[in-house]
């Protein structure tokens, strides 16, 4: 398999075509962005860490019968994945209050929720990814009701699997974001990445933040935080 034409460049990844139209090549970049691209930095090694962590997470989800786009890790910073048409929604699952939920509700960061919350945000940089409800999504034809139901169900299943997995590694899964797409056969699958860029992960004993909040809030070294996560997942720190 070879990477061919650059199809898309996002904030954290580049996507290339391959000789197989069902498969694309993903390259993780060393860039960090926050607040809709307002804060930016290049962090050596971040691409490799997110590629390693995402590969581990997707392999684990596949073993638990969650359909994902992941096929294999190709190199320390690259993966091959199924080609999907992305549904323009960010699906966020929350177990504990943090981030924009703390802002929106006034509840303190760290407040444990009675049950997980699933939220949908419209993926649109110009609008700053607004929170949408089911009616907004259906009225704008971003997804059909069956897809929405399936996304919500899969997101909650992923939450249960990840929560169990991280708890064993002495990490609390506070919240995370998923993206979904339809593959060339029209099947809905989990796409994009699952890494400390897209999850809030706190140390179970100290509540130390081991995710992108380290960068967003200038709390220390992002690389050290992501390395701690990779180490606890049993991943390869030195490639
Ligand atoms: O910022 P907020 O509290 O809404 O984020 C909820 C979760 O979704 C966090 O884990 C955050 O890292 C993730 N997220 C993301 N990409 C975005 C927005 C949020 O990965 N564009």
Describe this structure in words.
This protein has 239 residues and is an alpha+beta fold. The chain folds into 2 domains: 6-83, 2-Layer Sandwich (Phosphorylase Kinase, domain 1); 85-220, 2-Layer Sandwich (D-amino Acid Aminotransferase, Chain A, domain 1). It has helices spanning 46-63, 99-105, 134-139, 145-168, 213-216, 222-232, and strands spanning 6-9, 13-17, 23-28, 31-34, 39-42, 70-75, 78-82, 84-86, 89-96, 112-122, 131-132, 171-183, 188-191, 199-203. Strands 8, 9, 10, 11, 12, 13 and 14 form a 7-stranded antiparallel β-sheet that branches. Strands 1-2-3-7-6 form a 5-stranded antiparallel β-sheet, with helices on one face. It has a two-stranded antiparallel sheet with strand order 4-5. A hairpin with a 2-residue loop joins strand 6 and strand 7. The longest helix is centred in the middle third of the chain and has 24 residues, at 145-168. The relative contact order is 0.16. Bound molecules: cytidine-5'-monophosphate. Cytidine-5'-monophosphate (C5P) is lined by residues 90, 92, 98-101, 129, 175-177, 198-200, 212. This is Phosphoribosylaminoimidazole-succinocarboxamide synthase. It catalyses: 5-amino-1-(5-phospho-D-ribosyl)imidazole-4-carboxylate + L-aspartate + ATP = (2S)-2-[5-amino-1-(5-phospho-beta-D-ribosyl)imidazole-4-carboxamido]succinate + ADP + phosphate + 2 H(+).
């Amino acid at each position: 398999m070879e990477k061919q034409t650059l199809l898309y460049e996002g904030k954290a990844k580049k996507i290339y075509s391959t000789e197989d139209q069902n498969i694309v090549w993903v390259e993780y970049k060393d860039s960090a962005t926050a607040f809709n691209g307002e804060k930016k930095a290049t962090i050596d090694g971040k691409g490799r860490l997110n590629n390693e962590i995402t590969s581990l997470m997707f392999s684990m989800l596949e073993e638990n019968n969650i359909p994902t786009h992941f096929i294999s890790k190709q190199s320390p910073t690259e993966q091959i994945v199924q080609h999907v048409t992305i549904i323009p929604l960010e699906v966020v699952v929350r177990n504990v209050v943090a981030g924009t939920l703390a802002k929106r509700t006034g509840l303190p960061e760290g407040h444990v929720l009675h049950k997980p919350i699933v939220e949908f945000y419209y993926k649109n940089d110009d609008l700053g990814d607004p929170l949408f409800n089911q009616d907004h999504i259906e009225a704008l034809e971003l997804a059909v009701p069956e897809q929405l139901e399936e996304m919500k169900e899969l997101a909650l299943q992923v939450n249960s699997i990840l929560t169990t997995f991280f708890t064993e590694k002495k990490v609390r899964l506070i919240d995370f974001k998923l993206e979904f797409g339809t593959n060339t056969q029209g099947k809905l699958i989990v796409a994009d990445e699952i890494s400390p860029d897209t999850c809030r992960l706190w140390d179970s004993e100290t509540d130390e933040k081991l995710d992108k909040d380290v960068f967003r809030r200038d709390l220390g070294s992002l690389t050290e935080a992501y390395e701690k996560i990779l180490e606890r997942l049993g991943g390869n720190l030195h490639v």
